[in-house]
Amino acid sequence: MRIGIASIALEANTFNPIPTVLESFQSGMLLCGDEIWQLRDSHHELGGFLSGLSGQGVDIVPLLAAGAAPGGILSASTFSELRSRLHAQLDQSPPLDAMLLAPHGAMVSEDALDADGLWLQEIRDRMGASMPIIATIDPHANLSPLMVSATDAIISYKTNPHMDQRQRGIEAAKLITRAVKGEVKLSQAACFPPIAIEIERQFSSEGAYAELLAHAQHMQETPGVLSSSIVLGFPYADVPELGSSTIVVTDGNVLSAQPLANSLGEALWQRRHNLKSRLLSMTDAVQQAHEFPGTTCLLDMGDNVGGGSPGDCTILFEIIQQQHAGPALGVIIDPASAEQAKSAGVGAILNLQIGGKLPGTVGKPIEGKFEVMAVSDGRFTEEEPRHGGQQSFNQGTSVVVQNEELTLVLITNRVPPFSLRQITHLGVDPSKYGIIIAKGVHAPVAAYASISDHFIRVNTPGMTAADMSKFVYIHRRHPLFPLELF
Ligand SMILES: [Zn+2]
């Protein structure tokens, strides 16, 4: 049995004007052929594929692993280049019996609103209708009918923060070997209830989403059900399939999948009023954080780097300075200031204009005198299971600068706050701060829980604002709760 594995993954925010290009994958993940084996022990789904297939008498054929940090729309030339690399690997590979694929599910390119559907269908066209193809997706996928028809089974991660990527990869690997052996006949159906779940409600540990996951898990224990997924959707990709969905995979010899997918869709729709976000203003959030004992992590929802926002919005930092609520700590993407501070050297005091510069960002640069406290090349590793499953990071030139109210980690590359090592590798102890700002919504919780006594999700403006009514959509489906339906 010979099984190919491949991934092209990007969460594309269509409101971010900066395109995602090949360099974005080169500073993220871009591995070919046997290079992919280095992911074997990772918490990524590709680690799950490799591990789940090992020891089963399977000849594993790693083809391509391409992943970039969430950002703007994928350039057409990069999309073409990545697909060419994948098909060139297939040209060299011996005949395959099945494929395991890992798209993100919310990728948009300049030439394809449904970029995931496109590359999955190209694989289907090449490999033929009878080859088992199973894909794992991120629950922030905007699932399309084409993605469903191009595959035999899609399995979504179940947790947010995404802590189960490896387990889902293993699950997919076990399922595909059963399918190749003919032990099960994969049958897949999806349901697309007219609802978009706003980002603030997409936490898997509590509330309606947690209930839905329990419901789906209960369904998965029914004989004949092989997998059941709740797909949250990604509010910041303006595409026809924007919104939530459900997927059920059954053994087609035993059970029909469509009624079960519909019943999960109905369960989602019934809980819609508990899936509408609850929003707290910036001034209230900073005041609460200042009053709370211990360390409070303010989650900057509008400038969520892991949702494709710029990562250099300064508004919360400004409010902290105005309210004298510091000392506070946070990370800002600002290559120019990082370079300037690095040139000045540790111990130097210099005038900086920090953040508030990237196209489309909200707020102005923070201006003032800062002392340079530490400098690094921005390379670090994370061994613990964290959102995204990534182990090796390269955030480029990184410096710590400080004034009376703020300690800022200035970084060069788009690295979301998925690992606390982003800060601690520079010698900063986050637990000494009363307020930490993390530019995310749920993903940073996995990384910051050990040093945070409280988390507060803040209704900040930006390309990932929690309130979907703030966005002008052209392509998305209509009507949707909570925008037109109530
Ligand atoms: Zn996600």
UniProtKB/TrEMBL annotation:
* InterPro entries tied to this protein: MlrC_C, MlrC_N
What region holds the Microcystin LR degradation protein MlrC N-terminal domain? 2-289
Q: One Pfam match, by short name?
A: MlrC_C
Q: Where is the Microcystin LR degradation protein MlrC C-terminal domain?
A: 298-473
| Name of the protein described by the UniProt record | Microcystinase C
